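Supplementary Methods, section 5.1.

A reviewer requested that the exact input to the structure prediction be made available. We therefore reproduce it here, unchanged from the version used in the analyses.
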Amino acid sequence: MLIDGGPRSDDLVLTVRPGLTDAELNELFAASWPDHRTALFAPVLDRSLVWIAAHRGSRLVGFVNVVGDGGVHAFVLDTTVHPDERRKGLGVRLVRAAAEEARARGADWLHVDHEPHLKSFYEQCGFRPTTAGLMRL
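The structure derived from this sequence is encoded token-by-token as follows.
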């Protein structure tokens, strides 16, 4: 499903739950995350509530994944924007679109964990700070 709204430029298109290949996702993640190791994404997406992809032409330039608990809680994972597309509002558009889609699928609460330098980004997306706990396994 195509998402409309928000500033559009050129041929940038956001879609909900599009078919994505491991090659596309690995290419985006490798460009965006220096420590990325090639991964299989189909098992991850099979368990996801929703994901949003951004394409410029045929090139995947953005992605965000949302997983759910089967109830009212959902969690943002893997917000990724290609370095060539950063600082143009695409990440905020992706996360806001993911939030709307999660709400439409029954989520009442959307959670995100992030590093301190991403605080203002996630505030722009609509998140507010909370106290939470984290355990590395």
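The chain is about 30% helix and 25% strand. These observations are discussed further in the main text.
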